[in-house]
Amino acid sequence: MTILDHVSAYFQGWLDRDADAILAILGANGTYEDPTTPGPIGGAAFRGYLETLWSAFPDLTFEIVSEAETGPNSAAAQWIMRGTNTGSMNGLPPSGNQIELRGADFFTVEGGHISAVTGYFDGGTLLRQLGLNIIVQPTEIRPFKFGTSTSISTGKRAEPGAYSITFLDALDEAAAGRVSEGSRASLIDMQNMEGFIGATTVSFGSRMATISAWTDADAPRRVMQEGAHATAMRGLMDGSLASSGYTTVWSLERNNGFWVRCNACEKMTRKAQDGDVCACGEVLPLHPPYW
Q: Rounded to an integer, what distance in angstroms lies between the CA atom of residue 224 and that of residue 177?
């Protein structure tokens, strides 16, 4: 087989979704690497990578734009990868989005096998096509720390009577991942709990926090006793997730109400309840949810 025969067989394995064929072409010590891998991977790790990608994009295809030998034991190929995200990827639900990603692979062939494949593509393009945000920011510029946040709302327009605040300091990156998974599960549980209005989670460094809005101070008690949140609290108390934590409930002292813009005169007016009328005589629009 020529070098380009090896390259063609490699891509055919991708098109056939045949992990055994691809691993056979790479041989026992062959490796694969691209911007999404932790470094060169091979064997079982590469098989897992292939199966995960095929699961996320069952209709994945490659169009080879060009290929050529680049040396006595090397070759390069430009390609366009296309597919539809109908399966989970990195724990995220399927987006249903179609992707079209351009990239290139560089091959080294030794001893009758492809010994190394190094792939290059714009990971940002892939994420944007999947509908994901790309946020570039520093970790810390004292006195500020930077992180990420997520919000969930039931759409209820009820006035919050209490807020619960919980934070913990994750032990390490792996623990932080488990906390995030538990937090998502807990918020899903909370949507079905009477009295829950909405919540926002934030994380910066090892600290992870959740602020939840409730109709009254007694409503959050169910969270401590049921479902995923109760499981997460056990992880806090047995020391498997965090080095420290804090939870509290705050009752509402004063609500200054919503200010809404009148559709007729465009003035901002304080709105106490549905049906309130602007000074111009126009009925004010409904206010959005408090949380």
A: 21
